[in-house]
Amino acid sequence: MSLHVETVIHALRHNPVRFLPRGELFIHRNFLDHFFNGYKGQYLKQLEAAAQRLGLSAVGVELDIEGAHSLLSETRFKELEQYFTVGCINGPISRFIRGHGFFNAMLSMKREPSLFLQMAPGLLKEIENKIRLARANHLSAITIADDIAHNRGLLFSFDYFMDVLWPVYKEIAEFIKGNGLFAFFHSDGDTRKVIELLIKAGYDCIHPVETQAGINLYELKKGFGERVSFMGHIDIMAWSKEHIEKEISLAETESKKGGLILGSTCGISTETVSDKLGLLHPPWERIRPHQ
């Protein structure tokens, strides 16, 4: 087991860590193609180069993009096993919206909850197939990526989440854990109302701790203790350099006993690259490719 993988596992289990692990779930193709164009068309080579240049211990890989199934079938993701590799899969709400459009999906959740339930078995089967392949590729975790909230709270009622969505999320988490993987959950916005339920469903880590939605990392860590870990926290888009430096220093002090994978709240893309990126990921500033 590599030091990267070992350190992230210790952090997720709330054990003392040698260093605060850093990670990014979403490293976008435009960033990879711009800064690592020598490997253009070679997704895994680009990700490996990016993880090294950014100094990451945890790296997300997109399992729903074009070409991902071939890479999974050929067990090519093993090439990244020195990192704590997290397979990112669109969750049932994202898939429901993709099939019906945002407005119609939101409307049907309110008026016809049975429509989602009718689609759920097919969605679950597709997700479960990818989780099996992820295990064969030696991935460390799976993130279910579902934007279920905005900055003022859930996109739908708490009762809808509890009665309709939670059983589905629980079944997915159980399948992830049953395959020996850690279960992550991603949603932008203010998810505080359902974190307790996500923990009960079996999720090990919540991403991204969005401060613009009023979420405070240290209030979460105090409230939930060692029952769940968090990933993200640093807003390299909205925060000043001084604020970023202060928050990184605080995170490194407060998270020596685990519970945090430090990273950005917005992911890495050409739009998020600035001189502030090197504050979060210092190796980037030292050996940054020519722009």
| Uncertain runs | none
Continuous helix count: 13
Order of helices and strands: HEHHEHEHHHEEEHEHEHEHEHH
Any idea what the CATH architecture is?
A: Alpha-Beta Barrel
Q: What is the end-to-end distance?
A: 34 Å
Shape: globular
Estimate nothing, just give the exact number of structural domains.
Answer: 1
What summary fits the major beta sheet?
8 strands, parallel
Strand order of the largest sheet: 1-2-3-4-7-8-9-10
Q: Briefly, what CATH class?
A: Alpha Beta
What's the Cα radius of gyration? Answer: 18 Å
CATH topology: TIM Barrel
Q: Write down the oligomeric state.
A: single chain
What's the total count of β strands?
10
Overall description:
- It is built from 13 helices and ten strands.
- Helix 6 crosses helix 7 and helix 7 (113-136) packs parallel to helix 8 (158-178).
- The chain has a single domain (3-286), classed as TIM Barrel (Alpha-Beta Barrel), CATH 3.20.20.210.
- The protein is globular.
- It has helices at 3-12, 29-35, 43-54, 68-73, 92-100, 102-111, 113-136, 158-178, 192-201, 217-224, 241-254, 277-280, 282-286, and strands at residues 23-24, 58-62, 84-90, 141-145, 149-150, 153-154, 182-186, 205-207, 229-234, 260-264.
- The chain has 291 residues and is an alpha/beta fold.
- The chain is 48% helix and 14% strand.
- The mean pLDDT is 93.
- The strands form two sheets. It has an eight-stranded parallel beta sheet with strand order 1-2-3-4-7-8-9-10. It has a two-stranded antiparallel ribbon with strand order 5-6.
